[in-house]
Amino acid sequence: AVRPVLPPDIRARKGGAPLVVLTAYSTPMARIVDAHCDVALVGDSVGMVIHGLPSTLGVTMEMMILHGRAVVRGCQKAMPVIDMPFGSYEESPQQAFRNASRLMAETGAPAVKLEGGQHMAETIAFLTARGVPVMAHVGLTPQAVNTLGGYKVVGRAEEAAKVMADAEAVQAAGAFAVVLEKVPEGLAARITQALTIPTIGIGAGVRCDGQVLVVDDMLGLFTDFRPKFVKRYAELGRDADAAIAAYAAEVRDRSFPAPEHGFPDEVPAKAGAVK
Ligand code: KIV
Ligand code: NA
């Protein structure tokens, strides 16, 4: 079956109602994201927020496929997009096609996302010409943390022209949308105005065509560090800590389980049942 929302629909949202994007890594979270968002991004942030990795560099194709399948199962109307992990696409357009087509075939997602601007344009064109819709990602590209020297703002001063050129290059190559991460607000606004594809901001000011956050960040489930662009809409980590503390105390003082949680040895007669 063809999905209700496909990349051309997302592209056509340029300049319209803001695109709402959140990450998801599991079926139950994908169902909640699906009810409220346009895109469910299976981000390689999964490595840090779910698997405890120190960066996204250790994320594998197998991890993306497993989480991608879980998210696709939970999406009825939102469009799932799968991040291509570090090392799965940079070597050549052919390598990128091999892995992107595998992500799509094995998860059922209709699109992938990959990081990089001008240097990835040839690959993006190769993929889009062959049936792989690409969401691009420029500005701060976390897979390049070691060459960038940290998770700093990208695009201030003379760096601005490069980020603009990156955004224009991925559009010209055929990307249907582009994530702008940790880009100064004025530059993000100029890029949004210059492009005909939607920009999806994260730490990129108030004028992008859409927004994305890591769901575990905005729910307060991942609290190891907190970038300025993360707004906490809930404190589920704190709630989980209190719930687990209460469970541990009740098991230790034998107040859980209570009689109503057990199963009687005899099947009880149903109320009103004929004897
Ligand atoms: O991996 C991820 O979650 C992302 C978003 C933050 C855009 O790439
Ligand atoms: Na990512």
- Taken in chain order, the helices and strands follow as HEHEHHEHEHEHHEHEEHH
CATH topology: TIM Barrel
What share of the residues lie within helices?
25-40%
Radius of gyration: 22 Å
Q: Summarize the biggest pleated sheet.
A: 8 strands, parallel, barrel
- Helix/strand-derived category reads alpha/beta
Q: Low-confidence spans: pLDDT under 50, at least 5 residues?
A: none
Determine the CATH superfamily. Answer: Phosphoenolpyruvate-binding domains
Q: What's the total count of β strands?
A: 8
Kindly report the average pLDDT value.
Answer: 96
Cofactor: Mg(2+)
EC number: 2.1.2.11
Function: Catalyzes the reversible reaction in which hydroxymethyl group from 5,10-methylenetetrahydrofolate is transferred onto alpha-ketoisovalerate to form ketopantoate.
Pathway: Cofactor biosynthesis; (R)-pantothenate biosynthesis; (R)-pantoate from 3-methyl-2-oxobutanoate: step 1/2
Could you list some keywords that capture this structure?
275 residues, Pyrv/PenolPyrv_kinase-like_dom, binds 3-methyl-2-oxobutanoic acid, 11 helices, binds sodium ion, cytoplasm, Pyrv_kinase-like_dom_sf, alpha/beta, TIM Barrel, eight-stranded parallel beta barrel
